[in-house]
Amino acid sequence: MESTGDRAADAYGSDPVIGDASFGEVSIESSADFAAVPDAFQRLWTPHRMVYIEAGPTPHEQECPFCVAPSMSDEKALIVARGEHCYVLLNLFPYNSGHLLIVPYRHIATYDEANADEVAEMGSLTQIAMRVLTATSHCDGFNIGMNQGKIAGAGIAGHLHQHIVPRWATDSNFFPIIAGTKAVPRLLGEVRAEVAGAWPAA
């Protein structure tokens, strides 16, 4: 009888098809076993993104995800730390593994609307995030910034958030430019657990 390991090895010799994942079990099957004519394309299977496709073109116009996130569990919302005025969570659409967002609880749109307590805590959480990411992922640098307003590229323009993107000396390639695709090597839940576990207690 053919073992799962043998089938997985055979699959990687052609075009692998990743089947249903139930309760942590993933089956890998070779496309040679199916009735189809292969073509020249390689494919990245991203079924987790169906939730965004099904939500429609403007899902954030109905409910602000940054207002909803604090009411959810840390695991479900990808929150790694909660402060008094702001919280820290993973970006659902990361530029790199460990891409964090610092978000005030208040629904404010721009940095000039933040009060002194919110500004101070955003700053302190940013420093902690940098130290934690350096310790856990051994990154070489960071991109830190805010897009203010939709015209400036803010994906969720109605709720202020600051990006912290860890960078490595070898993390740049032509894949995003040529293929319009960003390869992110680690799962969000795995990164959240690691960063949250390394976050210092308040």
Structure explained in plain terms:
This protein has two domains: 4-45, no CATH class; 64-198, HIT family, subunit A. Helices cover 30% and strands 19% of the residues. It has helices at residues 4-13, 50-54, 65-68, 74-77, 116-137, 175-179, 188-198, and strands at 16-22, 25-30, 79-82, 86-90, 100-104, 141-145, 162-167. The termini are far apart. Substrate binds at residues 91, 163. This is HIT domain-containing protein. GO terms for molecular function: catalytic activity; nucleotide binding.
Q: What is the N-to-C succession of helices and strands?
A: HEEHHHEEEHEEHH
- Ranges with pLDDT <50 over ≥5 residues? 1-23
CATH class of the largest domain: Alpha Beta
Give the averaged pLDDT, no decimals. Answer: 79
Number of strands: 7
Task: Write a short abstract of this structure.
By secondary structure, the protein is α+β, with helices and mostly antiparallel strands. The chain has helices spanning 4-13, 50-54, 65-68, 74-77, 116-137, 175-179, 188-198; strands at 16-22, 25-30, 79-82, 86-90, 100-104, 141-145, 162-167. The protein has 2 domains: 4-45, no CATH class; 64-198, 2-Layer Sandwich (HIT family, subunit A), CATH 3.30.428.
Secondary-structure map:
Layout: H1 4-13, E1 16-22, E2 25-30, H2 50-54, H3 65-68, H4 74-77, E3 79-82, E4 86-90, E5 100-104, H5 116-137, E6 141-145, E7 162-167, H6 175-179, H7 188-198
Give the key terms.
202 residues; two-stranded antiparallel ribbon; alpha+beta; disordered N terminus; HIT family, subunit A; 5-stranded antiparallel sheet; catalytic activity; 2 domains; FHIT; nucleotide binding; globular; AP-4-A_phosphorylase
